[in-house]
């Protein structure tokens, strides 16, 4: 017979996650594979399909909101049965790095809305564009109102944070959160204040991918340095 235990302190997770965004949606088969000898943060950093959004505020929050219907009968005052009729999943965070690339994500714009003014006025030849890019002074984000029938931009999101495990091996234990289809749907505020840092609070609505019907997955993994 097992002895009573108050709990397992190594299962308590404290710490923020590194957030990566892909310009396309993901599926279980297209999600980058794990490498057993390195952190998934390093794997994604070396993958050109993902971009690290940098510093975040208030961590990462996943909200699961099931919707239940009720069946009422005459013989009891409470409901006799509940049945699940809907589901909604949201991922919330705040981008502390107020870059135009991050604002592009929060506004759910396509990459064509972010341009380099130095490149827009040159012919599309490799030599001319390379010369113009070297003289570039910045980026421009077109705050477009959009067109009728414009498709919303969905992206894949992967976050890598601390996992459960022994503190002595905590550098080699991590939890990976992946969302296959994410779409920014909430209001976004852009501010410039004297006593407060500019940041973009964003809420991503997660949608199930077509093949498996899955929103994504959460993986606890341990890696061992080579």
Overview of the structural elements:
This protein has four helices and ten strands. The protein is mainly beta and 226 residues long. It has two domains: 164 residues; 26 residues, no CATH class. Strands 1, 2, 3, 4, 7, 8, 9 and 10 form an eight-stranded antiparallel sheet that branches. The protein has a two-stranded antiparallel ribbon with strand order 5-6. It is globular and about 75 Å long. The two termini are 40 Å apart.
Topology:
Elements: E1 18-22, H1 40-45, E2 50-52, E3 56-72, E4 79-95, H2 100-106, E5 114-115, H3 117-120, H4 126-134, E6 140-141, E7 155-162, E8 173-184, E9 200-207, E10 216-222
Antiparallel strand pairs: 1-2, 1-7, 3-4, 4-9, 5-6, 7-8, 8-9, 8-10
Which outline best applies? Answer: globular
Percent in strands: 35-45%
**Average predicted local confidence, pLDDT:** 88
Distance between the termini: 40 Å
Please report the number of helical segments.
Answer: 4
What would you report as the Rg, rounded to the nearest angstrom? 22 Å
Tags for this model:
mainly beta; 226 residues
Brief rundown of the structure:
By secondary structure, this protein is mainly beta. The protein has helices spanning 40-45, 100-106, 117-120, 126-134, and strands at 18-22, 50-52, 56-72, 79-95, 114-115, 140-141, 155-162, 173-184, 200-207, 216-222.
């Amino acid at each position: 017979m097992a002895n009573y235990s108050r709990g397992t302190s190594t299962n308590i997770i404290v710490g923020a996650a590194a957030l990566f965004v892909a310009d396309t949606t993901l599926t279980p088969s297209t999600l980058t594979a794990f490498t057993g000898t390195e952190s998934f943060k390093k794997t994604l950093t070396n993958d050109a399909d993902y971009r690290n959004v940098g510093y975040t505020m208030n961590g990462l929050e996943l909200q699961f909101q099931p919707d239940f219907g009720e069946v009422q009968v005459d013989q009891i005052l409470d409901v006799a049965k509940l049945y699940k009729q809907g589901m909604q999943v949201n991922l919330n965070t705040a981008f502390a790095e107020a870059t135009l690339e991050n604002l592009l994500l929060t506004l759910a714009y396509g990459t064509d809305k972010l341009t380099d003014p130095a490149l827009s006025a040159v012919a599309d030849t490799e030599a001319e564009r390379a010369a113009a890019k070297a003289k570039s002074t910045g980026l421009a984000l077109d705050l477009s109102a959009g067109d009728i029938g414009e498709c919303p931009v969905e992206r894949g999101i992967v976050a890598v944070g601390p996992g459960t495990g022994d503190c002595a091996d905590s550098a080699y234990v991590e939890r990976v959160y992946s969302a296959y289809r994410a779409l920014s749907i909430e209001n976004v505020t852009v501010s410039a204040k004297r006593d407060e840092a500019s940041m973009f609070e964003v809420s991503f609505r997660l949608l199930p991918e077509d093949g498996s019907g899955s929103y994504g997955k959460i993986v606890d993994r341990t890696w061992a340095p080579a």
